[in-house]
Amino acid sequence: MPRHTLPALILAAALCYPAAAFAQTDSHARDTVESVCAACHAISTVERSSGYTRDDWRALTSTMVDLSGAPEMQAEILDYLAEHYPPNDNRAATPVDGPLTIRFEEWQVPTLGQRSRDPVEGPDGHIWWVGQWLDILGRLDPQTGAMEEFDLPAGARPHSVTIGPDGDAWYTGNRNATIGRFDAATGEITEYPMPDEAARDPHTAEFDADGILWFSLQGSNMIGRLDPQSGEVRLVTSPRERSRPYGVKIAADGMVWVACNGANCLLRVDPDTMAVEEITLPDAGTTVRRLDIDSDGIIWWVNSALGRLGRYEPATGDIREWASPSGPDSHPYAIAVFDGAIWYNESGVRPDMLVRFDPETEAFQSWPIPSGPVHAGILRHMRTSRDGEALLIHQSGTNHIARVSVEGR
């Protein structure tokens, strides 16, 4: 099993913050934290966290970087963070009680600092994930907890992974402009490069019923189609400039639906012609990270910019929205139809909340998402297990994969 060496100076979101945030005292501790954070690229600041006790800072940072070999440095960092950033109610969530009880099962992935994300279940029950920052593809046996990690081509920066009809793992090379196929039996990797240099960043991908892989390219403002049999890649540009195609789902009738993370729209793509139709959403400030489709063909989407849950009925054009419990700054992100309801998360609050919406009663219920012994990290994509009995989620900031089930099912 290929192993990765943890970058010595990687710390995650909670530790990387600007020098101006520090008091002028404790300058040595400040410099220590800054030196450790220097290996990170742009991430959220500690001022926007909910703060932690010293023990919780220890638990949180241990999911991001291994400082056990430098106990004096670790103590200095923990003392500073605990003193200056104790628990607070910044960005506090608004939890909603309800009748259901859910169960979280968690696994921390082996290599820290990788930003594990987008778990998906294979036909044998194994759960696959990608480590975006460190070019990792991972596989978890949830029955035993055993995990394997595989090296992807350097610079791929995989954004997501999905399972093909062949049972192999297909990932999006977000930085090297490829779609990759990982042969689960041999470990062989086949790369499919983009045919247009303007197509820079394959993002999220889903297979349709005919085995065609559809994918978004957010920064390139495109939608792509890959035929695994021929290897042909076709691309089409979104009709809305800077619409930033993001989440992708395939409807039962074969239509491809894509979320607009940069504009107030949904995109409907004809699978035969690749003609793209824009559905304009009411508020100009709307942006949509992800969407899902229920058994009646209704499109459910998150209004990430305005903190709402949305519903679009293709047959009638009817659009409705509901305010998310934690308000307009809650930034709903991932979404999935599960257990007869709509599930999504509020990523703009702390802790990151898992929210359930019952379409029949229009009632909400929510739970804080754990990241080990603390509530941190962020959920960026969720999907159901193949049998529909569980929800697969993650906390990328703390390198956790999780499975959620409803008690009493």
Automatic annotation (TrEMBL):
- Alphabetical UniProt keywords: Lyase, Signal
Q: Where are the transmembrane segments?
A: none
Report whether Aminoacyl-tRNA synthetase shows up as a keyword of the record: no
In the record, what terms sit under GO molecular function?
electron transfer activity; heme binding; lyase activity
**What lineage, starting at the top, does this entry show?**
Bacteria, Pseudomonadati, Pseudomonadota, Alphaproteobacteria, Maricaulales
Q: Which InterPro entries match?
A: Cyt_c-like_dom_sf, Vgb, WD40/YVTN_repeat-like_dom_sf
Q: What is this protein called?
A: Virginiamycin B lyase
Which interval of the chain is the signal sequence? 1-23
Q: Which organism is it from?
A: Maricaulis salignorans
Q: Which Pfam families match?
A: Vgb_lyase (PF24684)
